[in-house]
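Sanity check. The docking grid for iron/sulfur cluster depends on where the pocket ends up, so I'm generating a full predicted complex first rather than guessing from homology. Inputs follow.
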Amino acid sequence: MRGTIFYVIFMNEKRYYSLDKFYREKFGCKVIKISLDAGFTCPNKDGFKNIGGCIFCNGASGIGDKKDTLEVQFEKVKNVLLKKWKNAKYIPFLEANTNTYGALETLKKVYEPLLKFDNVVGLNIATRCDSIREEVYDYLEELNNRTFLTIELGLQSSFDETLNLINRGHTKDEFTACVRELKKRNINVVIHIINGLPFETEEMMYKTIEYINYLKVDGIKFHMLYIEKDTALYKMFLNEKFSLLSREDYIRIVCNQISMLDKNVVVHRLVSDPAREKLVEPKWLINKFEILNDIDKYLKEYNLFQGKEKE
Ligand code: SF4
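Predicted complex below; grid placement will be based on this.
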């Protein structure tokens, strides 16, 4: 029995700083994020910045049902989670589109009720680096004094030529300025990156990790580029036939990135999780749990740990 317990502990010990570990250290219990769609739009799609959006974006959030109130969306997911995690706490995650893209009063009406839901210990807000106005930064700072606030920002690449190619609608400098504003206010920042963007080299993907270390942010989500129908990326893929990363290349690159990553940066995600019915390529992404297992195996085989290069 004792041997079994040690085995389980050993198996759960990751070679990177996992989100589950971070939450357990911070809150002393299991904490689960619940993704919600508050019905915001995106300035990169609605014409304010651009029309069409990022070339990989299919326009659908795939999160919750925005016809339901946020409370109903939250309760539906929580009731499922309760079967497995009876004593968990929750963090509502405004994930769909750009969740600071609205008038300050509108944002307050969306955010404030979420903090009053049962067993909520924080709030995550996904947004763009060009969509937080000065008065909103100040409100976020005040909100951060009342709850554990995290802002999630899509970066995808630290190279302006790639940002331009994928129609992000912002530059690296704008991104840096936004992170500075948030960190000045002590707000937790999580950055999303995509490996395998068209025409990026492996070296460029490692440079993006160096940039993340330089920014001194709090968390990272790794994604693998994938292609869905009804996206500009799909058309580009058909016309230009750029190559996608193989499964082996992705695992090797992400493991090397983990070893380069500052050891204090929490890893929120290691691989994308596309909807099976919409996925065109790469098909190997469908089996997410096997990929996660193989990342663990690779890290072990090559004796890699997060931040090892820095020690
Ligand atoms: S910023 Fe997000 S929601 Fe907007 S177009 Fe890009 S991926 Fe889609």
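Relevant for the grid: The longest strand covers residues 148-156.
Also worth noting: The mean pLDDT is 92.
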